[in-house]
Amino acid sequence: TNKYIATPIRTKEILKKYHFTFKKSLGQNFLVDVNILNNIISHTGIDKEAGAIEVGPGIGALTEQLAIHADKVVAYEIDQRLLPILEDTLQDYDNVHVIHEDILKADVQEMINKQFKAEQPVHIVANLPYYITTPILMKLLRENLPISSLTVMIQKEVAERMAAKPNSKSYGSLTIAIQYYTDAEVVMHVPKSVFMPQPNVDSSILKLTRRKNPPVHVEDEDYFFPIVQACFAQRRKTLRNNLTSHFKGIYDKEEITTILDEINIDGTRRGESLTMEEFATLANTFYKRSK
Ligand code: SAM
């Protein structure tokens, strides 16, 4: 396995050859452990028929393993300096296509139409730049892309929030946002030692499987998500108090208590105890009243 990019020896060689210096501002922590990479890939469901999209290939550690296991890989890399390096490190693989673009600005749907076969399952796999984990995932989920799964290495605390259950410390508006679109599962925790340079935070592999339909009926998503956020605005406050702040000038505390009573949700509960279904009922009720 010494021939693989994802080893400390080869990674150091490549960095030295190109005088590459890490940019912290781009979240550059490269993986130097082939076992971890194969572990990630084994959880994706990728096989030789499948397509893979990677966000941030770096010097190609994960890209190389995807090229070996998948039919085709398309990778988005924002750092211009890495393009000539990737040409070199991935020269043996003719099924990799690198796009020099900010993933947040990319038209991923159009790329999929162009780069993958019509019925081909496509998976997103990435060791994400930690400074924009949430914006990247929310972009990819909201665009309703024809994606079978998203398997990503992210900061452990964020992975735990995304996969959290009600009544836990990690449960919050991010949990609802992610689980509205996907079934979220923390696959494994990963030691800092598999990265170069080692990050300051712990990491986990998170697997998101797209739902065919949202798990609850929401009248208006643009109304739903802000209400969920409001219920968690001050975690120690009751639902009633958080909603009173949210609806200031529209409903007073008494009116809010009455509305909550009507839908059998105790206003003295905290946001972290509400299920997704209860959030939907709550948001739909206020939404209908606003019409
Ligand atoms: N996949 C490589 C690996 O595992 O060794 C590198 C992962 S590193 C954590 C994150 C990568 O994402 C870096 O190569 C960085 O330049 C790139 N990146 C950061 N922001 C990006 C963006 N907005 N769009 C695309 N790539 C980005």
UniProtKB/TrEMBL annotation:
Lineage, uppermost ranks: Bacteria, Bacillati, Bacillota, Bacilli, Bacillales
Main location per the UniProt record: cytoplasm
Catalysed reactions, semicolon-separated: adenosine(1518)/adenosine(1519) in 16S rRNA + 4 S-adenosyl-L-methionine = N(6)-dimethyladenosine(1518)/N(6)-dimethyladenosine(1519) in 16S rRNA + 4 S-adenosyl-L-homocysteine + 4 H(+)
SUPFAM superfamilies for the chain: S-adenosyl-L-methionine-dependent methyltransferases (SSF53335)
GO molecular function, one term: 16S rRNA (adenine(1518)-N(6)/adenine(1519)-N(6))-dimethyltransferase activity
Location of this chain's protein in the cell: Cytoplasm
Domain of life: Bacteria
InterPro entries found in the cross-reference section: KsgA/Erm (IPR001737), rRNA_Ade_diMease-like_C (IPR023165), rRNA_Ade_Mease_Trfase_CS (IPR020596), rRNA_Ade_methylase_Trfase_N (IPR020598), rRNA_adenine_dimethylase (IPR011530), SAM-dependent_MTases_sf (IPR029063)
Similarity comment text for this entry: Belongs to the class I-like SAM-binding methyltransferase superfamily. rRNA adenine N(6)-methyltransferase family. RsmA subfamily.
One GO cellular component term: cytosol
NCBIfam families registered for this protein in UniProt: ksgA
Name of the protein in question: Ribosomal RNA small subunit methyltransferase A
Gene3D superfamilies hit by this protein: Ribosomal RNA adenine dimethylase-like, domain 2, Vaccinia Virus protein VP39
CDD domains for this protein: AdoMet_MTases
Residues at which S-adenosyl-L-methionine binds: 29, 31, 56, 77, 102, 127
Enzyme class of the recorded protein, top EC level: transferase
Enzyme Commission number: 2.1.1.182
Source species of the chain: Ornithinibacillus caprae
